[in-house]
Design a protein that fits this description.
Elements: H1 20-24, H2 27-32, H3 34-64, H4 76-121, H5 124-129, H6 132-174, H7 177-224, H8 226-231, H9 235-287, H10 293-310, H11 313-334, E1 356-366, E2 369-379, E3 384-388, H12 395-402, E4 410-415, E5 418-419, H13 425-430, E6 432-435, H14 446-451, H15 459-468, H16 472-477, H17 495-509, E7 513-517, H18 525-539, E8 543-548, E9 559-564, E10 567-572, H19 574-580, H20 583-606
Parallel strand pairs: 3-8, 3-9, 6-7, 7-8
Antiparallel strand pairs: 1-2, 1-4, 4-5, 9-10
Amino acid sequence: MAARRHHSAAPTERLRGNEWRAFASLLPYLLEYRWRVLAALACLVAAKLANVGVPLVMKEVVDGLDPKLAVVAVPAALLAIYGILRFSTTLFGELRDLVFVRVVQRAIRRVALGVFRHLHSLSLRFHLDRQTGGMTRDIERGSRGISSLLNYMIFSILPVMLEFALVAAVLIGKFDWRFAAITFGAVVLYIAFTVTVTEWRMEIRRRANELDSRANTRAIDSLLNYETVKYFGNEEFEARRYDENLTGYESAAVKQEASLGFLNIGQSLIIAAAVTALMYFAAQGVVADKFTLGDLVLVNGLLIQLYIPLNFLGMVYREIKQSLLDMDKMFRLLSENREVEDRPGAPELSAGPATVEFRGVDFHYERARQILHGVSFTIPAGNRVAVVGHSGSGKSTLARLLYRFYDVTSGAILVNGADLRQARQASLRAAIGIVPQDTVLFNDSILYNIRYGRPDASDAEVIEAARAAHIHEFIDSLPAGYDTTVGERGLKLSGGEKQRVAIARALLKNPRILIFDEATSALDSKSEKAIQAELERIAEGRTTLVIAHRLSTVMDADQILVLSHGRIAERGTHQELLALGGEYARMWALQQQEREAEAVLEQAKAA
């Protein structure tokens, strides 16, 4: 019989030997459901005993039909037993699957959840470097690999070994040594041939698997950047890049199919030769009156039942190897180092109004490129401090460090006198609210996106936050109201609408510390003025860090810091910095000229 056509992906690399740790990591889940596992194994043994019993009963039925034995009628009991055994093979097989499915699904659920949680605990650096499409495919394959490994190891390898032992016992007990020798020799040859050819086939498939992941990453990256593709009219360029990977995959898939045909032919040849030889010896025995016709049927039935599962050996071997590699790749995500981690027994951030202090902070993403140099400043509780400077001066890095997406290289950031590194990250981030420059929303309802600031908030609290952010009237005017879906990354909303959702979300969180990271820089001057007034209102009484490009938005800050090449070049109030006549004054003059030019253009358009 030819092996079933199976197109699952082959391993992308060779087993290094330590992939079996992936199987070891699943043992706790098996032990947790030990009684289910034992019940499944009992069903498996029962199914195999019934399977081997079928040819034995069939032998008795055939011998009962032999006129030499002078038996005219087949005993009804034998036929009943034959039918029961046939049914039992399927019944116990299905019961085995039914009992074991809970074990498999619980293992998949727990491992996938563990990986998901771990990915969220990794630093921003990891997520900036990752390729989302490839990583999600790794997790998907790893989860699927758990199911494949458990099922194939327990329900393919164990049954074949058990059936092999049972067939061996019958052949040795009822026939001479030649039958056992030919059967076992054929099995050894079959396994050696299958493993060798499967390894060769997997070499072909490795390249296809890499191209599959690359094409998936390419497609997701391209679709996520749909607008950019459209801006530059690069649809065909993207399609060509995607097709390059698909072309390679197509070529490898054709070779894979041809090699599968070779494997099937070789397997069938080995089985056919062995069965023919055994049937020849059995037929000789019948002619010589050493065996009955029932013995001939018994040999044929036993061999067919033994070789049917062997036909899938190539697929089982490939699947187990693939599952081990996929699981190992997923478990390697779990071994990714948490760059920012809570210290054992880290306390909660102290309650009450928060004073934030940057004390001699140095920071670099890469050793060769220092971002911040000895930055020191304090935001007293309830005060508003603004940081301005040219692009690349390190302004947004301050917000990332305060959120503890990264730890400082040297120096310290303190809240109420306590180093952030000593406090629990969850309590720190619960105390901070942010309105970013680019508000990214989930592809869900407006209600969901505002409530994300505090998932346990009631509808009334969400609406109250929306009113405070001056977006309730807009939402209420929509046909679906708060149930309106915002689209991928919130693309169905305008920039101003997204910013108001972000403000409502931050208000709902009710944080002690607020960060405005260039929250109005992407808006036009009219929207900026409207939202700026709301930002100032919600900042009252809260410790606020404002990162800004437009100086007109920070004129009323308690203190303004001018950041230049990662250092604080100037500090003071708006009037003090203008009187100083330095970098801030030059930036102010330049932006005033730009605003005047914009006003002239607007007047010209109006005219």
